[in-house]
């Protein structure tokens, strides 16, 4: 009897796959650390430098504050305008992507593919390219943020569009509504709260992005990082960092509260 | 049961009383935003450069893909990948204690987990590019600064996702182990870790996808990766080279997203 139960005991799952994955990961990490010339000793050697940097950053020089207020307002403006343009452009794109509204496969798939390609571009790279085209200033920054927002809002919206209730749409088709009427009375009431929520979420991301776009010359407060770091005025840099953190936290908080109310 | 004849008119839902106030506030906001933008028109060369970039993308500089004497596309992309792999790894090491610290069901008082959550959201709001600038001052320009910046920045998001995962575990296995006299370490190892591991791995892969995107821009400030040759090509107006680098970035990110998405679907 005991021998029988011994036979029936289930075998532990094979560990070979686990070991193989672990070995693969270790090799990957090792190759990566060789490639990036990372080492723990380097970090420990650099640690005193980091402490020095922190010591120079504090106390922050608050007198610098009034010089960067305008740049910060510019940053918020850029984020606001960029998000708005992107969100408006995203509406037709999202409608073209959603398979329950545009029922033609050879339209939805190519548009989705293009959308995915647009979303692979990080915002700072877009800004660098637009600066090369349009020159320095907030305008290329706004364009970069618009393209980035277009990708994000369109993707989130079309995914939400595909989950809407088909009932109202069917009812409207059966009483002979045309495409525009179906979208205005059947789709919009179902999607608008989600759409506004996605736009607010994108705005949060864009405020953070706009704060660094100045590093490539695309306007906003990012430019002052280069100025202060170039002159080794770390106490001024500290003011910029703290100010940005405060604004970002404030906008995040307000936007999250609004989004909670919407949905 | 009240009988409702079919011609009873259903009243329209009441509209928000503050609708007009909200609209006016929004309008004021947009007037403020648009009036502050210096719309000076485009440079005359804008159309010309756009055309050059488009032709650059259509006729990329294929020679740049591999050059025997360093600094080519493949090495740049490899460097970017290495930065994101190592950055993700560094963040996992830092994040595990943070996640347990800020999970409400793992610490005795709300004050402890609350302080952890505040720490995490503070790290999250700090842009990785700024972190990279600070690390460059510490360890010198190069990929290592990028690794450290990504590693530290990822902690903010991963810590929040991980601690949410820990808070959602099933209490059953934990109680069973407590009843049979397990100590805290055994609890962690046999009841908590098996439940959270798939979620942790999936989130890590997701963050890895984001890190690959971030790593492509680190080169802009001199923290290694493909961004450095891109900025050089842009400033020297070498549009064919810009084209091939953009193409390389798009292909790499699409591939990574596909592979990582496939593994994540299998995990969860």
Outline the structure in words.
- The complex is a heterodimer of chains A (263) and B (268).
- Helices cover 80% and strands 0% of the residues of chain A.
- In chain A, helix 4 packs parallel to helix 7 and helix 6 packs across helix 7 (138-161).
- The longest helix of chain A is centred in the last third of the chain and has 35 residues, at 179-213.
- Chain A has helices at 2-8, 16-35, 40-57, 65-97, 105-119, 123-134, 138-161, 166-174, 179-213, 222-230, 234-262.
- Chain A is extended, with a radius of gyration of 26 Å.
- Chain B has helices spanning 19-35, 46-58, 73-102, 110-125, 128-139, 143-167, 171-179, 184-218, 227-235, 239-267.
- In chain B, helix 4 (110-125) packs antiparallel against helix 6 and helix 5 crosses helix 6.
- The longest helix of chain B is centred in the C-terminal third of the chain and has 35 residues, at 184-218.
- Chains A and B meet through helix 2, helix 3, helix 4, helix 6 and helix 7 of A and helix 1, helix 2, helix 3, helix 4 and helix 5 of B.
Strand and helix map with partners:
The complex is a heterodimer of chains A (263) and B (268).
Chain A: H1 2-8, H2 16-35, H3 40-57, H4 65-97, H5 105-119, H6 123-134, H7 138-161, H8 166-174, H9 179-213, H10 222-230, H11 234-262
Chain B: H1 19-35, H2 46-58, H3 73-102, H4 110-125, H5 128-139, H6 143-167, H7 171-179, H8 184-218, H9 227-235, H10 239-267
Helix pairs in contact in B: 2-10, 3-4, 3-6, 3-8, 4-6, 5-6, 6-8, 7-8, 8-10, 9-10
Examine the coordinates and then state which fold CATH places here, giving the name of the CATH topology of chain B.
MetI-like fold
- Low-pLDDT segments, ≥5 res of chain A: none
End-to-end gap of chain B: 49 Å
Q: Briefly, what CATH class of chain A?
A: Mainly Alpha
């Amino acid at each position: 009897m005991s021998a029988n139960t011994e036979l029936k005991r289930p075998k532990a799952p094979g560990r070979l796959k686990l070991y193989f994955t672990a070995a693969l990961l270790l090799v990957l990490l090792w190759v990566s650390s060789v490639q990036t010339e990372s080492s723990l000793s380097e970090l420990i050697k650099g640690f005193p430098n980091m402490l020095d940097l922190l010591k120079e950053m504090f106390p922050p020089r608050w007198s610098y504050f009034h010089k960067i207020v305008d740049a910060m307002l510019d940053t918020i403006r850029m984020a606001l305008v960029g998000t708005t343009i992107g969100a408006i452009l995203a509406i037709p794109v999202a409608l073209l992507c959603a398979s329950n509204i545009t029922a033609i496969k050879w339209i939805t798939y190519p548009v989705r593919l293009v959308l995915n390609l647009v979303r692979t571009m990080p915002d700072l790279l877009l800004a660098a390219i637009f600066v090369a085209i349009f020159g320095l200033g907030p305008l290329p920054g706004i364009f970069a943020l618009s393209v980035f927002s277009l990708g994000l809002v369109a993707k989130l919206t079309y995914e939400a569009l595909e989950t809407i209730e088909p009932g109202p749409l069917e009812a409207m088709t059966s009483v002979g509504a045309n495409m525009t009427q179906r979208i205005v009375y059947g789709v919009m009431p179902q999607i608008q709260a989600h759409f506004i929520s996605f736009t607010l979420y994108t705005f949060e991301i864009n405020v953070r992005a706009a704060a660094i776009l100045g590093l490539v010359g695309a306007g906003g407060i990012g430019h002052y990082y280069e100025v202060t770091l170039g002159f080794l005025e770390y106490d001024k840099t500290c003011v910029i960092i703290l100010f940005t953190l405060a604004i970002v936290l404030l906008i995040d908080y307000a936007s999250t509260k609004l989004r909670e109310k919407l949905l | 049961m009240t009988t409702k004849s079919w011609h009873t008119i259903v009243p329209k839902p009441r509209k928000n009383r503050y609708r007009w106030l909200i609209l006016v506030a929004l309008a004021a906001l947009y007037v403020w935003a648009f009036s502050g933008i210096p719309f000076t028109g485009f440079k005359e060369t804008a159309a010309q450069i756009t055309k050059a970039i488009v032709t650059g993308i259509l006729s990329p500089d294929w020679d740049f893909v591999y050059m025997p004497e360093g600094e080519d596309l493949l090495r740049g992309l490899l460097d970017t990948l290495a930065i994101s792999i190592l950055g993700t790894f560094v963040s996992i090491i830092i994040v595990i204690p943070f996640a347990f610290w800020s999970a409400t069901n793992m610490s005795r008082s709300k004050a402890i987990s609350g302080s952890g959550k505040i720490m995490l959201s503070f790290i999250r709001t700090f842009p990785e590019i700024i972190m990279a600038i600070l690390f460059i001052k510490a360890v010198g320009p190069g990929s290592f600064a990028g690794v450290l910046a990504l590693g530290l920045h990822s902690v903010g998001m991963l810590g929040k996702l991980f601690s949410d995962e820990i808070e959602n575990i099933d209490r059953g296995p934990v109680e069973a182990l407590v009843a049979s006299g397990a100590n805290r370490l055994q609890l962690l190892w046999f009841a908590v870790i098996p439940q959270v591991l798939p979620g942790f791995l999936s989130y890590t892969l997701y963050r890895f996808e984001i890190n690959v995107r971030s790593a492509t821009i680190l080169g802009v400030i001199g923290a290694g990766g493909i961004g450095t040759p891109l900025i050089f090509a842009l400033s020297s107006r070498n549009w064919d080279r810009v084209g091939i680098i953009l193409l390389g970035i798009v292909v790499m990110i699409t591939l990574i997203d596909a592979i990582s998405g496939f593994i994540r679907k299998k995990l969860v």
